[in-house]
Write a structure and sequence with these properties.
Blueprint lengths: L11 H13 L12 H11 L12 H14 L4 H20 L20 H11 L9 H16 L38 H14 L4 H7 L20 H32 L2 H20 L1 H9 L1 H5 L2 H4 L4 H16 L10 H15 L8 H5 L14 H17 L5
Helix pairs in contact: 3-4, 4-6, 7-17, 9-10, 9-15, 14-15
């Protein structure tokens, strides 16, 4: 009998966390084989609030409310609103594919068969930036519309036909208007006015975030990791410290990801992969040695890492214990290069996988190991940088075009 993954539609935060868990098994960049996703996501949201690893381009922050606001004018609600919105999102895909720039068009391969619509991908971010003012899930929004229309209809009006009381709108009334014939032809490039609006939303709602600082800068430089941006050295002290913590954690824990894959390669007796991961672990050890003094100081003051408010509030105790155990193996048991054969480190990783996956653990289950593709979570944590820098670049490009009236 096939198994199914489902959840009850309770709160927006619960729904978003559940979606993240599901996506963890589908997206290479979000694989969490050793269970440090809460740390990764806490840093990511702190740096780049409202973004996610499955967002593609900034203008979707406008496409989605434009579609819904137009449908609200026609008083669709409930299941009919859901059906119409889906149909319009499919039309949007085709409209975007008529433009020259199709990089990041959501659903360009699946079209009508698309299961995860752009609206669900951006729903939480729209609320984080307060473009969406209704606080609930999409299904709650659909159910709410009939009541919303009724309240809007029943508002008392003055002699000048102005409402005497305020009704909370579902979308920011200051949103720039959509282009004509949006669902016939659309582009991913932001206009100047749209870029100004999106930057204002971030600066207003998340003024202390790294995202806000990057949007306030003139431009980004091309870099693999966020801490390689020159702007980092001019950030406020607390944000600089958070970036340094993220960089060091990403560096040190990458060794655990490589060792885990090396253990899988040895277990499956795939000598080519054994040699690849042994070489990667050697490169990791050499790069650790190059920053040894700095990283050892970070380890000695690791309590400052765990005291970060956004970590303290979200990371489970067992995850803290696991990471601290890995750090002890790295910094207290010989050279970094010796980690390739560190029995205690291997035992730690084996026990962690067994705890997280039970009978599905690849190091324990021959069938699960046979299905291994040769790489499981073998990447260095980047904290959404690849996605966020595309969003930031879109907004910068729009700003460079200037406002429409300029």
């Amino acid at each position: 009998m096939p198994s199914h993954f489902g959840w009850v539609d309770f709160a927006e935060d619960d729904r978003r966390r559940m979606i993240d868990v599901v996506k963890m098994f589908q997206e290479q960049e979000t694989l969490d084989e050793l269970g440090v996703g809460t740390i990764r996501d806490a840093f990511s949201e702190y740096f780049f609030p409202g973004t996610s690893t499955i967002q593609t381009r900034a203008r979707y922050m406008l496409f989605i409310p434009w579609i819904y606001m137009e449908l609200e004018k026609k008083r669709f609600s409930g299941a009919e609103m859901e059906r119409r919105a889906r149909a319009d999102e499919i039309k949007l895909i085709r409209a975007l594919l008529r433009s020259e720039d199709t990089e990041g068009v959501i659903g360009k391969e699946a079209l009508e068969k698309l299961r995860r619509l752009a609206s669900s991908t951006y729903w939480a971010g729209l609320y984080s930036w307060k473009i969406r003012l209704f606080p609930g899930t999409q299904s709650e929004y659909h159910r709410h519309l009939e009541q919303y229309y009724r309240k809007k209809r029943d508002l008392l009006k003055t002699d000048d036909n102005e409402p005497t009381t305020m009704l909370r709108e579902n979308w920011d009334p200051n949103l720039p208007g959509p282009p004509e014939k949006l669902l016939k032809y659309a582009e991913l490039a932001l206009t100047g006015d749209e870029a100004i609006y999106l930057r204002e939303r971030v600066l207003t709602e998340h003024p202390e975030s790294l995202l806000s600082h990057f949007l306030s800068a003139a431009a980004l430089e091309n870099s693999a990791y966020l801490w390689e941006q020159p702007l980092i050295s001019s950030l406020p002290f607390l944000l600089q410290k958070a970036v340094a913590h993220a960089r060091n954690f990403s560096k040190v824990f990458y060794g655990a990801a490589i060792l885990y894959n090396l253990m899988l390669a040895r277990k499956s007796e795939r000598q080519d992969l054994v040699e690849r991961y042994e070489a990667q672990l050697g490169e990791w050890a050499a790069s650790m040695q190059a920053r040894r003094a700095e990283l050892e100081r970070w380890y000695e003051r690791r309590d400052e890492f765990w005291a970060l408010e956004f970590l303290f509030q979200s990371v489970p105790r067992l995850t803290v214990d696991f990471v601290n155990s890995w750090l002890r193996r790295v910094f207290e048991e010989g050279s970094f290069a010796a980690m390739v054969d560190n029995v205690q480190a291997q035992s730690l990783i084996r026990n962690r996988e067994r705890f997280l996956k039970g009978a599905r653990a690849k190091l324990e289950n021959p069938k699960a190991l046979a299905a291994w593709g040769g790489a499981s979570g073998n990447y260095r944590l980047g904290f959404r940088w690849n996605n966020a820098k595309r969003i930031i670049a879109d907004i910068h490009d729009g700003l460079n075009r200037g406002p429409a009236h300029a």
